[in-house]
Amino acid sequence: MTNNIKPSISGYSKYNPEAKCRRKINPLEELYPTLPCKKYDVIYADPPWDYGGKMQYDKSNIKSINIGFEKNIFISAADFKYPTLKLKELKKLEVQAISADDCILFMWTTGPQFANSIELGQAWGFDYKTVAFVWDKQIHNPGRYTLSQTEFVLAFKKGRFPTPRGARNIRQLVSVHRGEHSEKPEIVIDGITKMFPTQKKIELFARQNYAGWDNWGLEIPEQKIEILSKSGLN
User: Fold this and answer.
1) Superfamily in which the 37-50+85-216 domain is placed by CATH
2) Which Pfam families match (predicted)?
């Protein structure tokens, strides 16, 4: 007896094939590019956190609204934009080799990755100290608990606080409208530069090439850009 029952169509069955095609793969044979042979007083990192393939979508994924899924389903995921890494892989990055005896680490994170961030900072040889910046993105994503509209920069310290210290009036709360996916507001690295104007500084997992900073990552432009001071930062 022939089974004529057709498999039900779901949002997942529609977007899963596309997701597989759009997922970014690390082009290197090794897990990471080579780190510089230098020691830095300030390290600024935006780790490519892995969310287990979790995707963002809108109401186009709801069968009762997008009947028959006739309209294209909106999907977005971190690994569509860049190769993501699991915590155990991030721990393998030898940040200890480039951090001075007295060093500050500023690390970007999100609510779901908060605990992992503290664990990662410790694995890199640092002690967690505080939340240095809170970014109000002025736009929200659906959240399981509350609407998600903020990201955080955590501060870690190794040894003593690097001196001499620059500005002491940099604000914790940064309110800047969200731009492209994973694009971080320049006001944050500007603030860090003002706090530590003379120290040796590097940005890890960089996607820009800021004057006064060394950088490391897969997607770094050749041309240096000046960090513009923003009104309202201090």
Assistant:
1) Vaccinia Virus protein VP39 (3.40.50.150)
2) MT-A70 (PF05063)
